[in-house]
Amino acid sequence: MAARESDQATEKAPDKAMDGLLRETLRDAVPSSGPCPEPEILAAYFERTLDKQETADYELHLSQCARCREQQAAMALAHAPARETESEKPRWAWLWDWRWLAPATAVLAAAVIWYGRSTEITAEKHPQLAVARSEPAEPPVSENVPLAAENKLLPPPPPPSSRAIGAPEKTEREQSVSRQKDLLTPTDRKAADEFASNLETDALKKESEDVRRDANAPSSAGGVPPSAPAPAAPPASSAMTAQNSVAVDAIAGAAASNEEPVAAAKTKQAAPLALANRNANFAASNLRSRETLVLVGTPNPQILWRFGSAGLVERSVDGGATWAGQIPSAGAQLTAGSAPAEKICWLAGRGGMILLTTNGADWKTITAPAKMDFSAIVAKDAFGATVTTTDGHKFTTADGGETWRPAS
Amino acid sequence: METYLESLHARDLALARACSLGNEAAWDFFVAEYRQELYRTARAIVRHGDSRDPAARELADSLYADLYGLRESARGRKSLFDYFHGRSKLSTWLRAVLAQRYVDEIRRAQRTQPIENQDGEERVDVASQAATSLRNMAPDGTLAPERAKHIAILQVALVTAIAALAPRDRLRLAYYYADERTLAEIGRLMGEHEATASRKLDRTRRELRRTVETALRDGKKLSNAQVQECFERAREKWPFDLTGRLRSG
Predict the structure, then answer these.
(1) Distance CA A322, CA B108 (A)
(2) How many residue contacts between A and B have a Cβ separation below 8 Å?
(3) Contact yes or no for B159 and A25 at CB 8 A
(4) Whole-angstrom Cα distance, residue B8 to residue A395?
(5) ipTM attached to this prediction
(6) Closest CA to B80 of B56, B62, B102, B57
(7) pLDDT digit string (tens) for B73-120?
(8) Contact B243 A13 (CB under 8 A)
(9) Using 50, 70 and 90 to split pLDDT, how confident is the model at A200?
(10) Number of other residues whose CB lies within 10 A of the CB of residue B31
(11) The overall pTM is greater than 0.80
(12) Would you say residue B24 has pLDDT above 70?
């Protein structure tokens, strides 16, 4: 044991000697006699862009020139804030490690695609359910109140297979149209126009044209008395409960069914047609809005954001099962979003619109670097984000949108 | 040549040239783009985080005048931008210019007044004091000509050995022994990990020792015992141990 310690001491002794010798020798070294390089070389060396020979030459000079070494140290100090910012990342910064983030993103993307696909299938098979599912949290509007009352006057809904709007059998449709044409009022014709403009499928357009053509043709069965109480075409509803949505579908199905007694009161039949049109409008607007919905993921897969082009922003805390709506800026045409944390979300849109929430609920409008349309936004945290305009320019902020600077 | 041209920062170079020529739009863009960064850099260099720090502001502001070229010579206005040739980013070049100015100012001040610590006493490095006091003195306070002779022999061999080192190894030694920087600082300055800096320093030091020993044996015809005695004398002269710093960083 003692011998081993002695060996270690012997081995270490020259180290102490070398330390002292080196310190003494290098401190007293003759400084470089050549001129110090320009700041540009200093900068290029700092960026590691000098070639091999230049680097060796400069390092040789540095080793002999205390002034240039001090400059390098000052340069490093000036570069330190960015490094400190990196080192002072919050503890959840590991969440952004690409080693797990890449596969997680792929899984999330697959889940979103699967969810979207399954929703489309549901919409194809059961459009009323799809409409109901897409807006579960929306409160009913007052216009929906009389619907339930009118629904009571109607015959029971036909089987689901015949309830699809605008998709009855040919003979059924012809019979239905021949009954409906006597009931149409100018208001109903307007609703039919809206119907055609909103539903962009060929089949539905074709049917709508049929309705319009038939309505304009001279009626052999007699027109609607001027005093007949025709319901006014309601405006397109932006929200509807699942129950009412299903009820309206049932009404629409009843109106299109040839099993409905022809002797039913005309005033009662006018309501289902208008309601069917309204439902079609609503379904179309929903389908349209669902097409433009943008999903924004967060590090927590259970927490998602989504928004449409009309300014409605929704947040889900259960992986997309339910959504809570917010309107941070009415009418904002949002196009992109980025959520670096559960409660931090940046949104960008047209006309220089940039929104930010740091608590998941309250939004503030950020002053944009330019009043331009943004096509993308990538956020690092509540302070750092980069927006891309539709013409490809990028601007970045590191202080929560207080200042912006062009990004390369 | 093609590689060189491709490596130039053309966008920054164009901005610098436009500013140098006095283009107002270019100046507006430059000020909007780099003003904050200049002040941030100046604050970092003078090691004060306060944006109102007068030294930092003065350092940054002094640059503006020269960048614009307020000083006119017989050949007209000369802008500092004329010295930028696009070999680095403009922002890095500005940092380098600021760093150079600051260091020159500090060195100028050091030549005219001593740097005092908070207690008002002149700052004296303990290690350098030890080295100075022991340069010609033995621990008992008496002159030790034999010891000085051994040290001189070692230093001559060591200077020769250092001159044969690769520039990067020499620079690492200078940062560590002459500037007394930590391994973490050296790693940052040289773009390598702290552990790498430590390992390479250790390796260089062992290599130097072998070279010096060989030079003493082959050149000075010293025996192994005499070589060992030289190092023993050197260890007595510098009794402090810096080896630990190499390990701990």
Answers:
(1) 69
(2) 195
(3) yes
(4) 23
(5) 0.76
(6) B62
(7) 666 667 888 889 888 899 899 989 988 888 888 888 777 655 444 444
(8) no
(9) very low
(10) 14
(11) no
(12) yes
How many residues are present in chain A? 408
Listed in sequence order, the residues at least 6 apart from B188 whose beta carbon sits closer than 8 Å to its beta carbon are: A76, A83
Stated as kind and residue range, the H or E segment containing A194 is helix A186-198
* Structural domains of chain B, with CATH: 2-109 (1.10.1740.10), 130-247 (no CATH)
Place of tokens 């200077």: B159
Please give the backbone phi and psi of residue A288, each rounded to the nearest 5 degrees, phi first. -65, -45
> For B112-165, what is each residue's pLDDT tens digit?
655 444 444 444 444 444 444 444 444 444 445 667 777 788 888 888 898 899
- A56 lies within 8 A of chain B by CB: yes
**Token duo for residue A362:** 């309250």
Length reported for chain B: 249
Residue B183: pLDDT band (50, 70, 90) is very high
Interface membership of A407 toward B (CB under 8 Å) = no
Neighbouring C-alpha atoms within 13 Å toward the C-beta of A153: 14
d(CA A79, CA A82): 6
| CB neighbour list of residue A116: distance below 8 Å, 6 or more residues apart | none
Instruction: List pLDDT tens digits, range A365-376.
Output: 888 888 888 889
Backbone angles phi, psi at A389, to 5 degrees: -80, 165
Residue of A11, A19, A65 to mutate, interface with B, max B Cβ within 10 Å: A19
- In B69-217, which ranges are continuous DSSP H helix? 90-112, 126-135, 145-163, 167-173, 183-190, 194-214
All residues at 6 or more sequence positions from A76 whose CB lies less than 8 Å from its CB, including other chains:
A46, B185, B188, B189
Q: Which tokens belong to A94?
A: 């590991």
Mean pLDDT to the nearest integer, A356-369 = 88
